[in-house]
Amino acid sequence: MPHAAAIAAIVGRDHVLSEDTARAYYASDLVLWEYACPPALVALPGTTGEVAAIARYAQEQGLVLVPRGAGLSYTGGVVSGDGDAIVLDLSRLDGVTIDAINMTVKVGAGLSWASLSKALAGTGLRPQQLGPISGEYSTIGGAVSQNVPGHLEGVLGLELVLADGTIATTGAGSVAGQTPFYRYFGPDLTGMFCGDGGVLGIKTAVTLRLVPERPAHFASFSFASPLDLVDAMARIGATNLGVRMFGMDPQKNRDAAKVDARTGAETVWNVVRQSRNPLALMRDLLQLARAPQSLADSGWTLHLTMEAPTDAAARSILLAARALIPAAGREIDNVLPKALHAKPYSVRGFVGREGERWVPIHGMVPLSVAHATMAALDQYFAAHAKPLAANDITIGYFFSSVGAYVSMEPMFYWRDALSPLHHRYLSERNRVRFADRSNNVAARAKVAAMREDVRAIFRAHGALHAQLARFYPYLDLLEPGTAILARRLKQALDPNRILNRGALDL
Hints:
Elements: H1 4-11, E1 16-17, H2 20-25, E2 41-43, H3 48-61, E3 64-68, E4 85-89, E5 96-99, E6 104-108, H4 113-120, E7 125-127, H5 140-146, E8 155-161, E9 167-169, H6 189-193, E10 202-212, E11 216-223, H7 226-237, E12 244-248, H8 250-256, H9 261-274, H10 278-289, H11 291-296, E13 300-307, H12 311-322, E14 330-332, H13 335-342, E15 357-360, E16 363-366, H14 370-383, H15 385-390, E17 394-401, E18 405-414, H16 420-425, H17 428-433, H18 441-460, H19 480-493
Parallel strand pairs: 2-4, 3-4
Antiparallel strand pairs: 1-2, 5-6, 6-10, 7-10, 8-9, 8-10, 11-13, 11-14, 12-13, 12-17, 15-18, 16-18, 17-18
Helix pairs in contact: 1-3, 7-14, 9-13
InterPro entries: FAD-bd_PCMH, FAD-bd_PCMH-like_sf, FAD-bd_PCMH_sub2, FAD-linked_Oxase-like_C, Oxid_FAD_bind_N
Domain FAD-binding PCMH-type: 35-213
Keywords: FAD, Flavoprotein
């Protein structure tokens, strides 16, 4: 295999994958992309220096580099169409250095969010930056590269490898001998590389702000329609109370209460650990026990979490948010936000309850058009009820917000063959349960076409997106001068376009 010996000399023979099955695996994410091409090989570097050496070699040989975390993307961010690409699996970059005095933690880009939580257990600290629900496996470097709905203000600095092998640091850590306690030192170079999809630089380490674990209060509400739910989110988002919100469709509520024994035990243990007193503990355990019944007919639900320096402050702010819930909302057991707070990471949702294939699409819209956007989505799926039923495709929703916007995520479920990527992250029990699924090309094509339609609906309502990668438009939406700036940045940092070529249209 061309280049394998040279890369093995950098990372070691055991950390180079060139067999066909491995190359095919690394040409995939949660979507089967027609343009996908197996890379020339896969390298698993163990240090920033090794990443830099590979970059220099790729520059000399004219090879494309595709940085990859867990691969749990659905927008093609880690899937290249270049057969001469080297995929950089960064999972070996998983170090953790905690500075509790200065409230920072430096982590390898390949560390998962769940692993960071375990490393911080017992310190009384957590990252200010919220990770995605898929953080059981998805990596911190991946989230910073792809972006997450909300913000990345909890990212203080980055360690980067540029296209020519230069190693650079951003934030206060860019000053020799300086504690990386602050982000905004000179131009915000950290921000320039956040959400870049790996087209400007390869992140090898991330410094995050830590904050104390704080008292939290929770509330949940049921609505008859998604429009009422979205209206409630917009009302709360307009107040800047700092309340975290997420919402779900009726079926997702029912599925949320059906967990395997291991997940259930972990959730119960974490709830026990976080309960404030014996009376609160008994109440929490009773809520968990009756969750399947209470969620069975809960309709569309909105869940609120408020953390504050004191218990009284959290309760007071949540009371203010509760007062904003319209009359259409009915308060229900707050078991879901409490359970998610206790166990924030899971990959249960990346396939359906019975092993259905799952692919979402999302848009973040300003408060002024949240209702109209939801109405347009509702009308679209109602108008396509027959083709959905004919292909046995069901639609779910997930909503979220931590500020003055609403993120809407329609999700498609259908029976189809699962990929090696799915099987890697499934439990052993579910690997066996879902092993016999056959290809469903017709349904897959219908989902792909409908995702494009939904993307157009979002665009018509001014939605923006995280995880731009190769699915959501970027350059074409920019003002001409801004597009020129983006192209000039790419040209200056990566003139030969070897870094994740094609992502962000660059």
